[in-house]
Amino acid sequence: MQLTINEKKLLLNMTGTGEKSPEYFADILQKPSESVIQYANLLSQKGLAEVRRELSTLLVITDEGELSLREGLPERQLFNSFDVSIPVSELNKHQHARIGIGWMKRLGWVSINEGIIKKTGNAPESPIEKGLKSPESASSDVQKELIRRGLVSAREEVTLTIAITAAGSKLVASGIDLRDETGTLTSDQISSGTWKDLALRRYDISKRPRPVWPGKIHPYQRMIDEMRRILLDMGFTELYGDIIQGAFWNFDALFQPQDHPAREMQDTFHLAGKKELPKGWERIRDMHEKGGDIGSTGWGGKWDPEKARATVLRTHTTSLSIQHLAEHKNPPVKAFCVGRVYRRESIDPTHLPEFEQLEGIVMDNDVSFKNLLGFLKEFYVRMGFSSVRFRPGYFPYTEPSVEPEVFIEELGWVELGGAGIFREEVTAPWGINCPVLAWGLGVSRVAMLRMGLSDLRELYQSDIDWMRKVPVMQRGKA
Amino acid sequence: MPVVSLPYKYLERLSGVDRKIIIENLPMLGSDIERILDEQVDVEFFPSRADLYSTEGVARAIRGYLGIETGEENYQVGISDISFSVDSNLKNIRPFIASAVIRDITLDNEAILSLMGLQEALHWVVGRGRAKVAIGVHNLDVVKPPFRYFGAPLSRKFVPLDFQKELSLEEILKEHPKGRDYAHIVIDKPLMPLIEDTEGNVLSFPPIINGELTRVSESSKNLLLDVTGTDQRAVQIAMKILCTALITAGGRCESVNVNGITMPDLAPAKREIDVPSCNRLLGTAYSADEIASLLQKMRYGAQPDGKDKVNLRIPCYRADIMHEWDVYEDVAIGAGYTSLEASLPATFSNGCEHPIMARASAIREICSGLGYLEVMPFTLSSESVMYTKMKREENPGVLRVLHPISEEQTIVRTDLLPLLLDLLRMNKRRELPQRIFHTGDIVLDLKTSRKVALVSTHPGADFSEAYATADALLRELGLEYLPYDSNDPAFIPGRVVDIVVDGKKTGVFGEIHPEVLNRFDIDQPVAAIELDLRVIEA
After folding, report:
1. Of A172, A381, B151, B525, which is least packed with CB atoms within 10 Å of its CB?
2. Per the domain annotation, does B72 fall within a domain?
3. What's the alpha-carbon Rg for chain B, to the nearest Å?
4. CB contact B434 to A (< 8 Å)
5. What pLDDT is attached to residue B504?
6. Is the confidence at residue A262, as pLDDT, over 60?
7. Are residues B508 and B397 in the same domain?
8. Do B253 and B273 have their domain in common?
């Protein structure tokens, strides 16, 4: 059994003393009695000592009681204030008359006849006077009277007594090591070897430590990095680019018609300033107006280069994908990007004007729609969504288009992102001759699902407490 | 995307299919089911498929998809002697109009609701909120052809829909609910588009409101349709979608002569598709016969022509078929996406992390190693947080959002430090010490670059802590720096350092000025560091 040095000392001193107060041992051990009570309690948890609590009433003389002890009780003072006899009317002037006259009479010190108070000649010490001198030894009736008269007050008090148990005595008989215990080892103790002679203190393992909060990567960033890792593992090249984009790359190059509502101020953040059009912009104009030379009808109408020069906060990372393709026309291209995108939406728990989007593209000879489904499935399965299915979808710059859905236990089938093959109207102007598979995914939506958040703002205006408490790894989760 | 309400009874009557089977199959046809109600199902269709914005259009598609009735519908257009003249004074206002007549139709309440729903969806998606296209449907029997489409002065009067008395066009724009909603489309024009009959009765004030006179009710038998707009193609397609839906509803279509041109033209467009390229794109191995029959399910007229070609007649309402690949998608939808097996191509490729992302990861490692917790604040901010509260001058390179949503998102951030201080404010009641960092994009002069910032707050946070931390950060980044006296007003004078690398100021650290702390409502000292990362990217 492990005992601290203080527990041991107390135990030794308890042997043969019988039941004693903590103060008794405090004297011997030269420790405050509160500490002795603590040691005794620890010993009692181990069955080596017994700590008995007794509730008793302690009588304490009040300030008024002290005054009466010095100057006499009111009735005694009144009694001493006259000689043999005095008219009641005269004695009534005395400050203690109201209490004192009744008491003097009750105690038989005086008689009252026709308005004259007369001493009987016999005024011994009353039980109250006697009781006030030592309230503890007074009869309970007297004690009650003392309390009633406010001369003494009663206080509940717990008294503790400590005694050794049979098991404690047995342990003492078997011998106790009284060497001082060592807490923190010093460098000297370690290198000199004196540690060998030390009794190393055992710590109380049931007491949990105060939490320490390490520096960490944000849980959302960790999830983003996990997605990035999956795509890197799948052989994709990472893209990165400006958050400010020309409308040309954000919309026109993606065959978004110029009168499309998503381009307008209500849906897209426009910025002051213009961006010059890249070389070859005329091919985009021709594609919009007449469908170029790929058998498309185009959108018809007039395409306005001014509208394409507007600058916007990118509404999707597809603006980076198409620029990457325009610069890398030869297959194969496998690229991805996770980046912040902007939509002019009012803030509510599930909509924010800025959020992360993931996007992947694959350009190669003879990649097909089935391959797109293959990439989607592979990605989602690696993300931990094992059931994936596909529904028709619509996106202005892909054809065919598909909406992948994943199965989530509590929610059923949840739409997670969109995908398709870039329209030829998008790729042909840059001389790209093979299909480009593309898919995008709202990363913050996955974060909400995975972290069980009810409000997207928690990702961006994070509660430090929440971040501290989200573990880096979760058991049972990859 | 528009949500179309499909009443079960009408839909079942038109399609001959049980509601349960319809609801099951709708998503695979290309839609999102919004909600399933007792009497109807509300479905969101894609903006490309305006032909599905009516119960009639959905019934047509579902009959094909389930194989009940495949191939193209044959839409007949009879000849009427009704004509329209278009005045040239609308040339720069709203020049295009299409018209058609529907005869012998029986409109019950559900058919009228479907028609109104279709009109609304077309207004929104094809019509861009009526600016590009607006539709009018009239009771033909109360007016007398020929009709006239012309520009009228604002003083012209008629009784608009839902009103009992005559209003001038000007009054309609101000007082009629639809007038107020759509006045912005015409308000700056010199003349207002108007349609009247030969006796001067007003049918419509497009794109605002029809006349009360021609209101359509369940007793209307013969209808006059008008579609006006600014884009000829969009005007025609809206008319075709409208006519084909009303033919499905039981009407008979007759033509109208508009300035010498007979319309509507409901004939299919012809196209030939290439079987091998369709299979190549989808990754399938369908024969020309199989492709033809899949496309017939999708309501195309389709005949194989040898083993490599399929001749198509594309229904006139399919405005979305711009290119051959649009047809390939319908082949895949007809086959069912679930029947397509997902497979990965064999192409070899190496993964390659972007160097900027790799550096960001390294910075995260350094900062978390220093005991800092990462945060990810917004990139949109306000002048108040970015400059006023920091006691700093506005950065001349700051980029303003032209139409912000709120006062909190008026600019793109140029610094990270203010956002960290704002986060400390939000976390004021959380246990101290708090040490947080962020690395991410900022924008200056339309250019995106990157910074890193760290803050530490607790009763002992001071200049020395900032110095020691900045020193460690710069050392780990492999940067030699010189400390220079700084006069950054966000910090306490004498407790702030400009970090100079290669003779250039690249950052600042020190103890935040108590005035700044007051403005951010922070009550503990803050040691702070901010570094421009262009220095490590050069």
Report:
1. A381
2. no
3. 33
4. yes
5. 95
6. yes
7. yes
8. no
What chain A holds in terms of domains, given with CATH numbers, is 181-207 (no CATH), 220-469 (3.30.930.10)
On whether both B129 and B57 belong to a single domain, the answer is: no
Min CA distance, B358 vs chain A (Å)?
10
State the number of CA atoms in the 13 A half-sphere of A254 facing the CB: 28
Q: Look up residue B338 and give its DSSP letter.
A: G
User: Is the CB of residue B369 less than 8 Å away from at least one CB of chain A?
Assistant: yes
Query: What DSSP assignment string belongs to B101-166?
Result: EEES----HHHHHHHHHHHHHHHHHTSTTTTSEEEEEEEGGGS-SSEEEEEE-TT-EE-BTT-SS-
Residue B359 within a domain: yes
d(CA A280, nearest CA chain B) in Å: 22
In tens, the pLDDT along A374-383 reads 999 999 999 9
CATH number of the domain that residue B280 is part of = 3.30.56.10
Set of chain B residues whose Cβ sits within 8 Å of the Cβ of A224: none
Pick the range with the lowest mean pLDDT from A260-264, A365-369, B414-418: A260-264
Residues B425 and B317 reside in one and the same domain: no
Residue A9 at interface with chain B, using a CB cutoff of 8 Å: no
In this structure, the answer to whether residues B395 and B507 fall within a common structural domain is: yes
**Which chain B residue shows the shortest CA-CA distance from A331?**
B347
Would you say the C-alpha torsion A77, A79, A81, A86 has a positive or negative sign? Answer: positive
Give me the mean pLDDT over the A128-141 stretch.
85
A391 to chain B, any CB pair closer than 8 A? The answer is: yes
3-class SS of residue A163:
strand
Q: Which amino acid is at A157?
A: E
Nearest C-alpha of chain A: how many angstroms from B303?
Answer: 20
Q: What is the pLDDT of residue A273?
A: 84
CATH number at residue B361: 3.30.930.10
Whether residue B134 lies inside any domain: the answer is yes
Residue-averaged pLDDT of chain A: 90
Quick one: pLDDT band at residue A452, thresholds 50, 70, 90?
confident
> Do B320 and B392 belong together in one domain?
no
The residues, ordered by sequence, that sit 6+ positions from B335 with a Cβ below 8 Å of its Cβ are B284, B286, B294
Residues of chain B with pLDDT below 50 are: none
**Tens digit of each residue's pLDDT (9 = 90 or more) over A35-73:** 899 999 998 998 889 998 888 888 888 998 888 888 888
Whether A139 shows a pLDDT value over 90: the answer reads: no
Nearest CA in chain A to B340: A370
Residues of A in contact with B348 (CB under 8 A): 235
Rounded CA gap, A242 and B125, in Å? Answer: 31
| CA dihedral over B146, B149, B154, B159, signed as positive or negative | positive
- A460's enclosing H/E stretch is helix A457-460
**d(CA B49, nearest CA chain A) in Å:** 9
By the CB < 8 Å criterion, does A212 face chain B?
no
Residue B70 lies in a domain: no
Element spanning B239, H or E: helix B232-248
* Domain hosting residue B46, numbered range: 3-65
pLDDT band at A247 (very low <50, low <70, confident <90, very high): very high
Distance CA B267, CA B269 (A): 7
> Which pLDDT does position B292 carry in this prediction?
97
Identify the weakest region by mean pLDDT among A115-124, A401-410, B51-60: A115-124
Here the tokens at position A287 are 């594609």
Position A342 confidence tier, pLDDT thresholds 50, 70, 90: very high
ipTM: 0.91
Number of domains into which chain B is organized: 4
Q: Does residue A392 carry a pLDDT above 80?
A: yes
Tell me: do B294 and B183 sit in the same domain: no
Instruction: Pick the last residue of a domain from B244, B263, B282.
Output: B263
Closest residue in chain B to residue A364, using alpha carbons only: B347
pLDDT category at A476 given cuts 50, 70, 90 is: low
- For residues B166 and B85, state if they share a domain: yes
> A245: which chain B residues are within 8 Å (Cβ-Cβ)?
none
